[in-house]
């Protein structure tokens, strides 16, 4: 969950950078001068991130990519937009040499907790990154995964409900078994458990 930093309405990029680097306990995201403090995670959130990271490691590491979790920031637009996704994948040389930031992500993943704010804002920002091929979102309260995938210059949307259908990332020749993403996860009783795949063009 990201919360606006209330003591200052506008931060320059240099002020944001100084704040983010000085505070080792809190991560800060930056969007056109506004700074958001990232709150702590939960055990369930952490478990799903870890499950997904393990699956991505198995697929991407042998192919020369790197997979990073949570503490690595993504530059969506230089000096204007910076975020801390739960997972990010890249194989560019400058990303492998940079110890704190990814500038050329090919895949970004977010686990959606209660109150996860600004996801629509992030979606628009992530979509503007030239190297990005896919943006993956995983629900914390039901067996539900969303995928935005770039195909021939356009973004396509796909959602998988339930644990039986895998989620296909065609751009990476990768199928993610939903059951493995939610391994050791207890579904909230307030959600449904149907199995369905929805796909279409994201306008």
TrEMBL record:
Domain Putative restriction endonuclease: from-to ranges: 14-178
InterPro entries: Nuclease_put_TT1808, Restrct_endonuc-II-like, Uma2
Superkingdom to which the source organism belongs: Bacteria
Entries under PANTHER family matching the protein: GLR1098 PROTEIN, RESTRICTION ENDONUCLEASE DOMAIN-CONTAINING PROTEIN-RELATED
Protein known as: Putative restriction endonuclease domain-containing protein
